[in-house]
Amino acid sequence: MEKRIITAAITGSIHTPSMSPHLPVTPDQIADEAVRAYDAGAAVAHIHVRDPETGAPSVDVNLYKEVCMKIKSRCNIVLCITTGGGLGMTTEQRLVAIPLLKPELASFNFGSFNFALFHALESYKEFKFDWEREYLAMSEDLILPNTFKTLREFSEVFQEYDVQPELEVYDVGQINNIAFMIRKGHLKRPIYIQFVLGILGAIQPTLDNLLFLYNNARDLLGDFTWSVCAAGRSQFKMCTASLLAGGNARVGLEDNLYLEKGVKAKSNADQVEKMVRIARELGIEPATPDEAREILKLKGLDKVAY
User: Fold this and answer.
1) Rounded CA gap, 273 and 291, in Å?
2) Tens digits of per-residue pLDDT, 177-193?
3) CATH number at residue 71
4) Terminal CA-to-CA distance of the chain, rounded, Å?
5) 239 touches 229 (CB < 8 A)
6) What is the total count of domains within the chain?
7) Range of the domain at 181
8) What is the pLDDT of residue 83?
Protein backbone atom coordinates (compact mmCIF):
# COMPACT_ATOMS: atom_id res chain seq x y z
CA MET A 1 0.00 0.00 0.00
CA GLU A 2 1.01 3.61 -0.49
CA LYS A 3 2.55 5.18 2.61
CA ARG A 4 1.88 8.79 3.60
CA ILE A 5 3.02 10.89 6.54
CA ILE A 6 0.40 12.06 9.02
CA THR A 7 1.56 14.90 11.25
CA ALA A 8 -0.14 15.97 14.48
CA ALA A 9 0.25 19.67 15.35
CA ILE A 10 -0.14 19.29 19.09
CA THR A 11 -0.90 22.72 20.57
CA GLY A 12 0.39 25.57 18.36
CA SER A 13 0.11 29.23 19.27
CA ILE A 14 -3.16 30.17 17.53
CA HIS A 15 -5.83 28.85 19.87
CA THR A 16 -6.04 30.02 23.45
CA PRO A 17 -6.97 27.96 26.53
CA SER A 18 -10.47 29.42 26.75
CA MET A 19 -11.34 28.02 23.32
CA SER A 20 -11.10 24.36 24.36
CA PRO A 21 -10.55 22.51 27.65
CA HIS A 22 -8.65 19.88 25.66
CA LEU A 23 -5.85 22.15 24.41
CA PRO A 24 -2.60 20.84 25.95
CA VAL A 25 -0.62 23.44 27.89
CA THR A 26 1.89 21.89 30.30
CA PRO A 27 4.95 19.90 29.20
CA ASP A 28 3.34 16.69 30.47
CA GLN A 29 0.11 17.39 28.59
CA ILE A 30 1.95 18.21 25.35
CA ALA A 31 4.13 15.10 25.65
CA ASP A 32 1.13 12.90 26.48
CA GLU A 33 -0.73 14.24 23.44
CA ALA A 34 2.23 13.58 21.15
CA VAL A 35 2.46 9.97 22.36
CA ARG A 36 -1.30 9.49 21.91
CA ALA A 37 -1.00 10.86 18.38
CA TYR A 38 1.83 8.40 17.71
CA ASP A 39 -0.27 5.51 19.02
CA ALA A 40 -3.09 6.64 16.70
CA GLY A 41 -0.85 6.59 13.61
CA ALA A 42 1.00 9.91 13.42
CA ALA A 43 4.62 9.75 12.24
CA VAL A 44 5.42 13.38 13.08
CA ALA A 45 4.46 15.67 15.97
CA HIS A 46 4.75 19.42 15.44
CA ILE A 47 5.82 21.04 18.70
CA HIS A 48 5.15 24.44 20.26
CA VAL A 49 5.38 25.08 24.01
CA ARG A 50 3.29 27.20 26.36
CA ASP A 51 3.61 28.78 29.77
CA PRO A 52 2.39 25.99 32.07
CA GLU A 53 0.55 28.47 34.31
CA THR A 54 -1.27 30.61 31.74
CA GLY A 55 -1.11 28.69 28.46
CA ALA A 56 0.51 31.65 26.68
CA PRO A 57 2.91 30.79 23.80
CA SER A 58 6.46 30.53 25.13
CA VAL A 59 10.07 30.42 23.88
CA ASP A 60 11.45 28.89 27.08
CA VAL A 61 14.12 26.48 25.85
CA ASN A 62 13.83 24.45 29.04
CA LEU A 63 10.18 23.75 28.23
CA TYR A 64 11.12 22.64 24.71
CA LYS A 65 13.80 20.32 26.01
CA GLU A 66 11.52 18.87 28.70
CA VAL A 67 8.76 18.15 26.18
CA CYS A 68 11.10 16.59 23.62
CA MET A 69 12.90 14.41 26.15
CA LYS A 70 9.62 13.14 27.58
CA ILE A 71 8.33 12.23 24.15
CA LYS A 72 11.58 10.58 23.07
CA SER A 73 11.63 8.43 26.21
CA ARG A 74 8.26 6.93 25.23
CA CYS A 75 8.23 6.63 21.42
CA ASN A 76 10.27 7.33 18.29
CA ILE A 77 7.91 9.83 16.63
CA VAL A 78 9.65 12.50 14.51
CA LEU A 79 9.53 15.89 16.25
CA CYS A 80 9.10 18.98 14.09
CA ILE A 81 10.01 22.02 16.20
CA THR A 82 8.39 25.34 15.40
CA THR A 83 10.30 28.40 14.25
CA GLY A 84 7.00 30.19 13.70
CA GLY A 85 6.63 30.61 17.45
CA GLY A 86 3.82 32.87 18.62
CA LEU A 87 2.45 36.15 17.31
CA GLY A 88 4.68 39.11 18.14
CA MET A 89 7.81 37.05 18.84
CA THR A 90 11.09 38.28 17.40
CA THR A 91 12.95 36.24 14.80
CA GLU A 92 15.62 35.49 17.41
CA GLN A 93 13.00 34.12 19.82
CA ARG A 94 11.44 31.98 17.09
CA LEU A 95 14.78 30.32 16.28
CA VAL A 96 15.96 29.76 19.85
CA ALA A 97 15.22 26.02 20.16
CA ILE A 98 17.07 24.90 17.02
CA PRO A 99 20.70 25.22 18.24
CA LEU A 100 19.72 23.73 21.60
CA LEU A 101 17.76 20.71 20.36
CA LYS A 102 19.22 20.09 16.89
CA PRO A 103 15.96 18.39 15.84
CA GLU A 104 15.47 16.25 12.76
CA LEU A 105 12.79 18.56 11.35
CA ALA A 106 11.60 22.12 12.00
CA SER A 107 9.01 24.41 10.47
CA PHE A 108 10.22 27.35 8.38
CA ASN A 109 7.70 30.04 7.33
CA PHE A 110 8.67 31.25 3.88
CA GLY A 111 7.34 34.76 3.53
CA SER A 112 5.81 37.74 5.32
CA PHE A 113 2.04 38.15 5.51
CA ASN A 114 -0.85 39.33 7.68
CA PHE A 115 -1.53 36.60 10.28
CA ALA A 116 -4.91 37.55 11.67
CA LEU A 117 -6.73 36.00 14.61
CA PHE A 118 -8.65 39.05 15.85
CA HIS A 119 -11.90 37.90 14.23
CA ALA A 120 -12.06 35.10 16.84
CA LEU A 121 -13.14 37.77 19.33
CA GLU A 122 -16.55 37.66 17.66
CA SER A 123 -17.03 34.08 18.88
CA TYR A 124 -15.33 34.17 22.28
CA LYS A 125 -16.43 36.75 24.84
CA GLU A 126 -15.11 35.33 28.12
CA PHE A 127 -11.47 34.38 28.71
CA LYS A 128 -9.69 32.52 31.49
CA PHE A 129 -6.53 34.64 31.26
CA ASP A 130 -6.01 38.34 30.63
CA TRP A 131 -3.42 37.78 27.88
CA GLU A 132 -5.83 35.94 25.58
CA ARG A 133 -8.01 38.88 24.53
CA GLU A 134 -5.03 41.17 23.95
CA TYR A 135 -3.16 38.45 22.02
CA LEU A 136 -6.04 37.96 19.60
CA ALA A 137 -6.81 41.68 19.26
CA MET A 138 -3.25 42.70 18.42
CA SER A 139 -3.28 40.56 15.30
CA GLU A 140 -5.49 43.12 13.54
CA ASP A 141 -2.33 45.21 13.16
CA LEU A 142 0.34 42.51 12.85
CA ILE A 143 2.52 41.16 10.07
CA LEU A 144 4.36 37.86 10.55
CA PRO A 145 7.79 38.95 9.28
CA ASN A 146 9.86 36.57 7.19
CA THR A 147 12.10 38.82 5.08
CA PHE A 148 14.73 37.58 2.66
CA LYS A 149 17.38 38.44 5.25
CA THR A 150 15.51 36.32 7.79
CA LEU A 151 15.10 33.49 5.28
CA ARG A 152 18.84 33.51 4.60
CA GLU A 153 19.76 33.61 8.29
CA PHE A 154 17.30 30.86 9.21
CA SER A 155 18.61 28.71 6.33
CA GLU A 156 22.15 29.09 7.63
CA VAL A 157 21.12 27.90 11.10
CA PHE A 158 19.18 24.95 9.68
CA GLN A 159 22.22 23.88 7.66
CA GLU A 160 24.65 24.39 10.55
CA TYR A 161 22.67 22.03 12.80
CA ASP A 162 21.64 19.59 10.04
CA VAL A 163 17.91 20.26 10.47
CA GLN A 164 15.55 19.49 7.59
CA PRO A 165 13.22 22.46 7.03
CA GLU A 166 9.50 21.96 6.57
CA LEU A 167 8.80 24.93 4.30
CA GLU A 168 5.48 26.52 5.27
CA VAL A 169 3.77 28.12 2.27
CA TYR A 170 0.78 30.33 3.06
CA ASP A 171 0.44 31.95 -0.36
CA VAL A 172 1.66 31.51 -3.90
CA GLY A 173 4.41 34.15 -3.83
CA GLN A 174 6.22 32.18 -1.15
CA ILE A 175 6.88 29.42 -3.71
CA ASN A 176 8.88 31.97 -5.69
CA ASN A 177 10.79 32.72 -2.49
CA ILE A 178 11.73 29.04 -2.22
CA ALA A 179 12.89 28.93 -5.85
CA PHE A 180 15.06 32.01 -5.30
CA MET A 181 16.66 30.61 -2.15
CA ILE A 182 17.44 27.34 -3.93
CA ARG A 183 19.08 29.21 -6.83
CA LYS A 184 21.22 31.19 -4.39
CA GLY A 185 22.31 28.04 -2.58
CA HIS A 186 20.60 28.86 0.72
CA LEU A 187 18.25 25.88 0.48
CA LYS A 188 19.36 22.35 -0.36
CA ARG A 189 17.33 19.54 -1.84
CA PRO A 190 15.33 17.47 -1.02
CA ILE A 191 12.58 20.02 -0.47
CA TYR A 192 9.64 19.41 1.86
CA ILE A 193 6.75 21.88 1.54
CA GLN A 194 3.63 22.25 3.63
CA PHE A 195 0.81 24.20 2.05
CA VAL A 196 -1.05 26.06 4.81
CA LEU A 197 -4.58 27.09 3.89
CA GLY A 198 -7.30 29.05 5.64
CA ILE A 199 -5.44 31.69 7.69
CA LEU A 200 -7.05 35.13 7.42
CA GLY A 201 -4.43 37.12 5.52
CA ALA A 202 -3.30 34.17 3.39
CA ILE A 203 -4.69 31.83 0.74
CA GLN A 204 -8.08 30.28 1.41
CA PRO A 205 -8.83 26.53 1.66
CA THR A 206 -10.32 25.52 -1.67
CA LEU A 207 -9.46 22.67 -4.00
CA ASP A 208 -8.69 25.14 -6.80
CA ASN A 209 -6.25 27.00 -4.55
CA LEU A 210 -4.52 23.81 -3.46
CA LEU A 211 -4.04 22.65 -7.04
CA PHE A 212 -2.88 26.16 -7.99
CA LEU A 213 -0.21 26.05 -5.27
CA TYR A 214 0.87 22.53 -6.18
CA ASN A 215 1.09 23.20 -9.92
CA ASN A 216 3.05 26.43 -9.36
CA ALA A 217 5.46 24.59 -7.10
CA ARG A 218 5.95 21.81 -9.66
CA ASP A 219 6.65 24.37 -12.40
CA LEU A 220 9.15 26.35 -10.32
CA LEU A 221 10.78 23.67 -8.18
CA GLY A 222 10.49 20.33 -9.94
CA ASP A 223 10.33 17.41 -7.52
CA PHE A 224 9.44 17.92 -3.88
CA THR A 225 7.62 16.17 -1.04
CA TRP A 226 4.57 17.97 0.29
CA SER A 227 1.86 18.08 2.91
CA VAL A 228 -1.26 20.11 3.62
CA CYS A 229 -2.76 21.63 6.73
CA ALA A 230 -5.89 23.75 6.87
CA ALA A 231 -7.49 25.89 9.53
CA GLY A 232 -10.77 25.03 11.18
CA ARG A 233 -13.63 23.32 9.40
CA SER A 234 -11.61 22.79 6.21
CA GLN A 235 -9.02 20.58 7.90
CA PHE A 236 -10.25 17.13 6.91
CA LYS A 237 -11.49 18.14 3.46
CA MET A 238 -8.18 19.67 2.42
CA CYS A 239 -6.10 16.92 4.02
CA THR A 240 -8.15 14.33 2.15
CA ALA A 241 -7.60 16.25 -1.09
CA SER A 242 -3.87 16.19 -0.36
CA LEU A 243 -3.88 12.41 0.05
CA LEU A 244 -5.82 11.99 -3.19
CA ALA A 245 -3.30 14.19 -5.02
CA GLY A 246 -0.24 12.36 -3.68
CA GLY A 247 0.56 14.54 -0.67
CA ASN A 248 0.74 14.05 3.09
CA ALA A 249 -1.54 15.45 5.78
CA ARG A 250 -1.35 17.44 9.02
CA VAL A 251 -4.13 17.46 11.59
CA GLY A 252 -4.14 18.49 15.25
CA LEU A 253 -5.47 20.98 17.76
CA GLU A 254 -3.12 23.70 16.53
CA ASP A 255 -5.17 23.96 13.36
CA ASN A 256 -8.67 22.84 14.34
CA LEU A 257 -10.39 22.28 17.68
CA TYR A 258 -13.19 20.11 16.27
CA LEU A 259 -13.59 16.50 15.19
CA GLU A 260 -16.77 17.22 13.25
CA LYS A 261 -19.38 19.96 13.18
CA GLY A 262 -20.33 20.84 16.76
CA VAL A 263 -18.09 18.16 18.32
CA LYS A 264 -14.81 19.26 19.85
CA ALA A 265 -11.87 16.88 19.60
CA LYS A 266 -10.89 15.66 23.05
CA SER A 267 -7.37 14.84 21.87
CA ASN A 268 -5.06 15.19 18.91
CA ALA A 269 -5.36 11.42 18.67
CA ASP A 270 -9.06 11.78 17.80
CA GLN A 271 -8.15 13.73 14.68
CA VAL A 272 -5.25 11.41 13.78
CA GLU A 273 -7.54 8.37 14.07
CA LYS A 274 -10.07 10.02 11.76
CA MET A 275 -7.39 10.91 9.22
CA VAL A 276 -5.98 7.38 9.33
CA ARG A 277 -9.46 5.97 8.77
CA ILE A 278 -9.99 8.23 5.76
CA ALA A 279 -6.55 7.33 4.36
CA ARG A 280 -7.18 3.60 4.66
CA GLU A 281 -10.51 3.97 2.87
CA LEU A 282 -8.46 5.41 0.00
CA GLY A 283 -5.98 2.53 0.04
CA ILE A 284 -3.30 4.58 1.81
CA GLU A 285 -1.43 3.40 4.91
CA PRO A 286 0.05 5.84 7.46
CA ALA A 287 3.84 5.85 7.44
CA THR A 288 5.68 4.89 10.59
CA PRO A 289 8.16 7.40 12.05
CA ASP A 290 11.09 5.50 10.52
CA GLU A 291 9.35 5.38 7.15
CA ALA A 292 8.80 9.14 7.44
CA ARG A 293 12.51 9.56 8.14
CA GLU A 294 13.29 7.71 4.94
CA ILE A 295 10.73 9.67 2.88
CA LEU A 296 12.03 13.03 4.16
CA LYS A 297 15.72 12.00 4.29
CA LEU A 298 16.09 12.97 7.94
CA LYS A 299 19.33 12.56 9.88
CA GLY A 300 17.87 10.21 12.50
CA LEU A 301 16.83 10.32 16.14
CA ASP A 302 20.36 9.42 17.30
CA LYS A 303 21.65 12.77 16.03
CA VAL A 304 19.34 15.13 17.96
CA ALA A 305 20.36 16.91 21.17
CA TYR A 306 17.50 15.95 23.47
Assistant:
1) 19
2) 999 999 999 999 999 99
3) 3.20.20.70
4) 33
5) yes
6) 1
7) 2-303
8) 97
